Amino acid sequence: MINSDTIETDESATAGASQAPAHLLNRVDRAAVFLMLLSDDEAARLLSRLGPDELEQIGAAMCQLGEIERAEMIEALEDFVGESAREIMAKQDRGAQVRELLERSIGPTKAESMMLRIEPDAGPRSIEMARWLAPSVLLQLVEDEHPQVIAALLLMLEPEPAAEVLSELPSHIQSIVVERVARIGPISTQAIDMIDKLLSQRIGASFGANALALGGPREAANLINLAAGELRGIVLPEIAQRDGPLAEQIEEELFTFEMLFDLEPQAMERLLRDVDSEALVDALKGIKEDERTPFFKAMSSRAADGIRDEIEMRGRLSRGEVDTAKRKVVDVARSLAEQGEIVMGGDDGEFV
Fold first, then answer.
1. 3-state helix, strand, coil in the chain (%, to 5)
2. d(Cα 346, Cα 227) in Å, to the nearest integer?
3. Residue 22 has what pLDDT?
4. Average pLDDT estimate for 145-170
5. How far apart are CA 165 and CA 158, in angstroms?
6. 89-107 pLDDT, tens per residue?
7. Pick from 264, 266, 280, 265: which is nearest to 332 by CA?
8. How high is the pLDDT of residue 95?
9. One-character DSSP codes across 261-322
10. Nearest of 333, 331, 323, 330 to residue 269 by alpha carbon
11. Within 10 A of 59 (CB to CB), how many other CB atoms are there?
């Protein structure tokens, strides 16, 4: 970071050090060269931290330097490295510094939520634990609360689950909550503590001590999908020996709708021949436009246009309806994969 101590003349920088080698550039010029080696955005962020006098000196140097030789660029970089080597970044108030940066980039509300996740020795709080709860569970916890409380909580969640909670609120509350989200300013620490205590009470009263239990067949399947090697072929048979129904549930979750995005065009074409069109329309309505591309590419232009029209004409669907449609499509894909007609899960042959 450039500061007033860094922007000085050769005379002040070399006082008492007559043995130092001669420099091609003075300190201001070296700072200017260093900034010009950065991207425009990075340089702008650094310049925004300087005072008017410092900006004037740096700006004048940038304009007056003319053609910059390679040796001068090396000198500017070496000067930066040398300054960095002499500095010690104090640990004191590091949390406050990180909080300030986060507040500038994502706002005070989300910054507070982020600090709960990353700050060392920060105790678990119900606001953080709420990130693990299904939107339907969160809805039960807050649906009868004041709109301001609901708005504040939604701002602390990730956008997708927050939007799902909002969509399931009573219609007469939705507009009020959205308006308060738009108008809400900085949320005090006291207000965050109040929401945290509220969630703790509601979780305990509604669900008991096991309310925040994690895991399940889907999480187990995700671990298998992300693990390297032939983990599926090892763990599932062993689980089946101990608990057959559980192994079947995990097996079902191994096939996800997102895997279909990577199907080869011929495999996608084969899949679409067996998929019910109503289920396909509902499933595609629940995903982003760019995610629909693999499906449309496997259709004729006429068929693709027809599906697009049906998606546009389809009314609002709940998350449950979309998930049910996706599962129907995945079930067809899974059946075809088990028959060896398509390959899912990449080229390693894991799902064949």
1. 70, 0, 30
2. 13
3. 61
4. 84
5. 11
6. 444 456 666 767 677 777 7
7. 280
8. 65
9. GG--HHHHHHHHHHS-HHHHHHHHHTS-GGGGHHHHHTS-HHHHHHHHHHHHHS----HHHH
10. 333
11. 14
